[in-house]
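Homework help board

Subject: predicted structure for assignment chain

Our instructor gave us this sequence and asked us to write out the predicted structure in token form, then describe one feature. I got the tokens but I'm not sure how to describe them. Can anyone check?
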Amino acid sequence: MSLSDFSSSDRWRALVLYGLNTATYKIALAKTLLELAQSQQTEVAWSELSKRFFNQYRMRLDANGGMPQSGLAGRRTKMERIVAEFRTGQSCLQAGRVQMPP
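My token output:
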């Protein structure tokens, strides 16, 4: 079975149903896709999608008052660690190892 055997709806359902229902990455991705759809954009470059998703994710973390995404105290998700590094200027995003559009 390959990815082409699944409809767009099937793929979206799988994306949304795996993991925690309140996970910030799901909400950030959904808001990013809705924003693109509302502007009638049917195609988007990975770099643009990445930038928009990252910004949405940061806003969601801020909106949650910095509450951890993981239920374990002191443990942060990979995305939370990336955002923390970004905020301190130590991220590979600022160091030029990963290119983010302006």
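Reply (TA_rk): Your tokens look well-formed. For the description, you could write something like this. Confidence is low (pLDDT under 50) at residues 95-102. That's the kind of observation they're looking for.
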